[in-house]
Write a structure and sequence with these properties.
The structure is a single chain. The chain folds into three domains: 291 residues, Alpha-Beta Barrel (TIM Barrel), CATH 3.20.20; 231 residues, Class I glutamine amidotransferase (GATase) domain (Rossmann fold, 3-Layer(aba) Sandwich), CATH 3.40.50; 53 residues, Immunoglobulin-like (Sandwich). 25% of the residues lie in helices and 24% in strands. The strands form ten sheets. It has an eight-stranded parallel β-barrel with strand order 1-2-3-13-18-19-20-21, surrounded by four helices. It has a seven-stranded mixed beta sheet with strand order 23-22-24-25-32-31-30. Strands 4, 5, 7, 8, 9 and 12 form a six-stranded antiparallel beta sheet that branches.
Length: 739
C-alpha cells in the first residue's frame, strides 16, 4: 500500500517508567509478553529467527518490529536459481607431499550441508606449493571432490584456494544447532546477480503489503554474511566478524574488474595460505574491493529503504549476520537513509561502536544474555542474573559517555519468564537506562582531553579493532582490546586515525595524545607502515611539540637495523630481538610516577610483552626481574615506563586487559603524557572501581559502582571538592552539583 501513513518515531518518546525498550515475543506467549511488557515498560515487540509474531501485536506494544531477511527465506527462488547463490573462496587443508602426486580433498573438514564445490568457477581455483610460494598446475576430480597436483616435489606443502557455493545460511546453522531445530534449512541467494537483485526489491514490496501490522522493518541484515564456516562436526571452524570471504560473487568480481581494471584472484581473498582478515595490514587491491562492495551494498540498501519509506514504515538495520559491505563508518552509509541501527551489546566497546554510527536517528542495543536454552536452563537462574549484571556494568560506563537511544533483548521470552529474579532485575535496569539517556540528552559529558587511536584502519573500524568474533575473549588480544574497553567509559573524547590519515594531513588539531596498541606485524600495531620515514617524522614532530604518545604491547613494531620499535626514541624502550645482547643495559630500577601513584599491588598486564628493555634516560615504573638472575645488568622485562621527548611525553605499557584499576592506569597515563595532571581530581572517584560522569550543562554527576561489592570512595566534583561516598553493589547514584 503506497503512501501508508507513517507511525511514530522508532526511538519513541518515553516517560520515566516506560519506553525505549524492545522485547521479543511469539504467537505462543502472548499473555506472558503483555505482563512482562508492562513490568519492563516496553514500547516495542519484535519477532526472532524461528518465531512468528502473534495476531494483533499492537495490543502488546505501540511499536512492532519484524525481522526481514533479504537474501534468505525463499528456498523456492533459491532452488530455481542455483547459479545466483552466494559464493565463497575457501582454503583446503595443507598437505605435505610424499611423492610426485598429491591428492587434496577440497571440502574435507567443512560441514557438508554448508558448501558445495562451484565447478562453474573452477577457472578461479588456484593451487600452491607453499614451500616455494609458487602457484602450480592442478586437475580437479569432480566426482571425488579432490584436486590432483602432479609433478609435486616430495616434502613440500600444498594447498588449494577454491570457490564454493553456499548451501545453507551460516547464522541459521548456528541457531539450528544451538536450539536443536528441525526446520527447512535456509538457502542463500546473491543480489549482485541481476535477476536476484530485481527479485529482492519485488519481494520486499509484497512482504510490506502482507505485513500491515509492522511499523519497523528490521533488516537482518542485508546481503553478505561475515565469514562463518562450520566444520564436519557442526562446530565453528572459522569466524571473522569483518571477513569479506562471502563476497566472492563472480558478478562482483567481474564488475570490479570492469571498473578498476584489476582482476582479483582467489589469493587476494586468501592471502599466502590464510584467510584475509583485519589483523593483516590491508593492501591497496583489497581496500579497493572493499570499497567497491560497499558502494554496491549502499546503492541497493538505499533502494530497499526507499521502498520501506514509500510504504510508510521505518527501516532498521541489525549490525550482525549479513552486515559485510554495509560498513557503518564507511563513506556511503550515512546516505542510505536508515532510520535506526541495532546490534548486540557485549560491553562498553560495542555500546560505543553502535551509539556513534552516523546516518541513523536511532541506535538500539540488544543486551545479553540472549534468551536461548544454552543460558536459560534449569539451575542457572543466578547465573543469568549475574551474567546480565556483569554485562550491564560494562555497558553502563560507556552509555554514560555516549548513550544508545534504546535497549532490547532477543530470543525466546517464554524462557526468560521462568526466571523471576532475572525479570525483576531487567525492570530495574530498564528504568536506570531511561534515566541515563534522558540525562545525556540534556548535556554532553565532561571530557578532559581528546585521544586518537592510531592503526591501519582508522575511522572505518571505529570501536572495532582487535575483534575476531564480536568482542569475544581471545588469549592473544584481550590485553589489547582492553584498551578500547577502558576508553569506552573514560572522560575523554576518542577519535580513530589511520596511518594514511597522518601521512596525508598529520595528526589533527586538538588531539592531545595518540595511542598505538597491538602485536607486531598486525594492522593495529602497523607493521610495514613503520618503514615509512615520513610517518616517523610526523609522529616524532607531533610528540616533540608537546603532545603525548601511549604505546601498548608492541607499538610501532617493525624489525629493522637490529631494533623492533621504530619509535623507540619516543617511547624510551625497545624489544630485544637477540641482536643487542652484547650491549649492556643498566636501566632496571623501578620508580613511582604520576602514572602509577595510586596503584596498590601488582598491575595486570594480561599476556604482557616479553623482552622489553629501557633506554638510558627512560623512567622505568615497573619491571619484572626473574629471581634466577642476580646481576644488575641485562636483566628484567620492562612493563611500564615513561619518557620525555623534547617538549612531549610518552608512556609504554606491556598490555592492558580491562579492569577498573587498568582503566585508571590508562587515564593517568593519558593525562601525564598530555601534561594535564591537574585535571585528575575533577569529576573523579578516588576508588578505581567507581567512576564519575559529569554533565556540566545541567550540573549533574553520575557516580557508578562497577563491581558487585560495596565500594567506598572519595567523590570529587568539577571544582575538586571531595565528598566521601559508600556505594552499594552495582549502584548508580545521581548527584546534583552546587552551581
Amino acid at each position: 500500500m503506497e503512501n501508508r501513513e507513517k507511525k511514530g518515531d522508532v526511538c519513541c518518546a518515553s516517560s520515566p517508567k516506560k519506553g525505549r525498550l524492545t522485547i521479543p515475543t511469539d504467537a505462543s506467549f502472548v499473555e506472558g509478553t503483555k505482563e512482562i511488557a508492562a513490568l519492563w515498560g516496553a514500547d516495542a515487540v519484535r519477532d526472532c529467527d524461528g518465531t512468528s509474531l502473534p495476531k494483533n501485536p499492537h495490543e502488546i506494544a505501540p511499536l512492532v518490529y519484524k525481522t526481514y531477511f533479504v537474501v534468505r527465506g525463499d528456498n523456492e527462488w533459491a532452488k530455481k536459481h542455483p547459479e545466483e547463490a552466494h559464493r565463497v573462496f575457501l582454503l583446503s587443508d595443507t598437505v605435505t607431499a610424499d611423492s610426485s602426486l598429491v591428492r587434496i580433498p577440497l571440502l574435507r573438514h567443512y560441514l557438508k550441508d554448508q558448501f558445495a564445490l562451484d565447478m562453474a568457477n573452477v577457472h578461479r581455483f588456484q593451487a600452491f606449493d607453499r614451500t616455494l610460494g609458487e602457484e602450480v598446475p592442478f586437475e580437479i576430480d569432480e566426482k571425488e571432490g579432490t584436486a590432483l597436483i602432479k609433478n609435486a616435489i616430495p616434502y613440500h606443502e600444498y594447498n588449494v584456494d577454491f570457490v564454493a557455493r553456499l548451501l545453507w545460511h551460516p547464522t541459521q546453522i548456528y541457531n539450528y544447532l544451538t536450539n536443536h531445530w528441525d526446520v527447512e534449512k535456509d538457502m542463500v541467494y546473491d543480489p549482485s546477480f541481476p535477476k536476484t537483485r530485481q527479485y529482492v526489491k519485488e519481494h520486499l514490496k509484497r512482504w510490506l503489503e502482507e505485513n500491515q501490522d509492522v511499523d519497523v522493518v528490521r533488516f537482518t541484515t542485508f546481503f553478505y554474511q561475515f565469514s562463518l564456516f562450520f566444520n564436519e562436526k557442526g562446530k565453528e571452524k572459522y569466524v571473522d566478524w569483518f571477513g569479506y570471504g562471502l563476497c566472492g560473487s563472480p558478478a562482483l568480481l567481474d564488475g570490479f574488474k570492469k571498473e578498476s581494471g584489476i582482476a582479483l584472484t582467489a589469493e587476494d581473498l586468501i592471502q599466502a595460505g590464510q584467510y584475509n582478515n583485519p589483523f593483516l595490514v590491508p593492501n591497496e587491491k583489497f581496500r579497493r574491493y572493499m570499497d567497491y562492495v560497499s558502494r554496491f551494498c549502499a546503492g541497493l540498501m538505499k533502494e530497499l529503504v526507499e521502498i520501506v519509506h514509500r510504504h510508510g514504515r521505518k527501516a532498521m538495520m541489525f549490525l550482525g549476520d549479513d552486515w559485510i559491505g554495509t560498513e557503518p563508518y564507511g563513506p556511503y552509509f550515512a546516505d542510505v537513509g536508515l532510520d535506526a541501527v541495532v546490534g548486540s551489546i557485549g560491553g562498553g566497546v560495542t555500546v560505543r561502536m553502535l551509539s556513534e554510527i552516523p546516518g541513523a536517528a536511532c541506535h538500539e542495543g540488544r543486551f545479553l544474555p540472549y534468551f536461548f536454552p544454552d543460558e536459560f536452563h534449569e539451575g542457572n537462574e543466578q547465573g543469568v542474573v549475574d551474567g546480565f549484571n556483569k554485562s550491564w556494568r560494562s555497558a553502563r560506563r560507556a552509555l554514560l559517555r555516549k548513550p544508545l537511544d534504546r535497549m532490547g533483548f532477543g530470543g525466546y521470552l517464554s524462557l526468560a519468564a521462568k526466571f523471576p529474579s532475572f525479570v525483576d532485575r531487567v525492570a530495574e535496569v530498564a528504568d536506570e537506562f531511561r534515566d541515563i539517556v534522558e540525562t545525556a540528552e540534556k548535556s554532553a559529558p565532561y571530557c578532559t582531553m581528546k585521544v586518537g587511536v592510531l592503526n591501519a584502519w582508522g575511522s572505518l573500524r571505529s570501536w572495532m579493532s582487535h575483534m575476531v568474533a564480536h568482542e569475544l575473549w581471545y588469549q592473544q588480544i584481550y590485553s589489547y582490546q582492553g584498551v578500547l574497553e577502558a576508553l569506552s567509559g573514560l572522560p575523554v573524547e576518542v577519535v580513530f586515525l589511520s596511518f594514511d590519515d597522518v601521512l596525508r594531513s598529520g595528526v589533527p588539531d586538538g588531539v592531545d595524545a595518540l595511542i598505538n596498541v597491538g602485536a607486531r606485524d598486525t594492522s593495529y600495531s602497523g607493521g610495514s607502515y613503520w618503514d615509512n620515514p615520513r610517518l616517523l617524522e610526523k609522529i616524532r614532530s607531533y610528540v616533540a611539540k608537546g603532545h603525548g604518545f601511549v604505546g601498548i604491547g608492541e607499538p610501532s613494531a617493525y624489525a629493522k637495523d637490529g631494533h623492533l620499535f621504530a619509535l623507540r626514541d619516543v617511547l624510551g624502550v625497545d624489544e630485544e630481538l637477540g641482536f643487542t645482547l652484547s650491549q649492556d643495559k643498566y636501566n632496571i630500577e623501578a620508580h613511582e610516577s604520576f602514572v602509577n601513584a595510586d596503584k596498590k599491588g601488582g598491575i595486570d598486564y594480561g599476556e604482557g610483552t616479553k623482552n622489553v628493555y629501557a633506554l638510558d634516560g627512560t623512567e622505568v615504573l615497573d619491571i619484572d626481574i626473574s629471581p634466577r638472575f642476580i646481576r644488575k645488568v641485562n636483566v628484567g622485562e620492562v612493563k611500564l615506563a615513561v619518557n620525555d621527548y623534547f617538549g612531549g611525553r610518552s608512556c609504554y605499557i606491556a598490555g592492558l586487559p580491562y579492569n577498573g584499576e587498568n582503566a585508571r592506569l590508562l587515564y593517568r597515563a593519558l593525562l601525564y603524557v598530555s601534561h594535564k595532571e591537574d585535571a585528575l581530581k575533577k569529576a573523579f572517584s578516588s576508588n578505581p572501581n567507581a567512576e564519575v560522569s559529569y554533565y556540566p550543562e545541567i550540573d549533574t554527576y553520575a557516580v557508578i559502582n562497577n563491581t558487585d561489592h560495596t565500594q567506598e570512595t572519595v567523590f570529587y566534583d568539577a571544582d575538586g571538592e571531595p565528598t566521601k561516598l559508600m556505594l552499594k553493589p552495582t549502584e548508580l547514584r545521581w548527584i546534583k552539583g552546587k552551581k
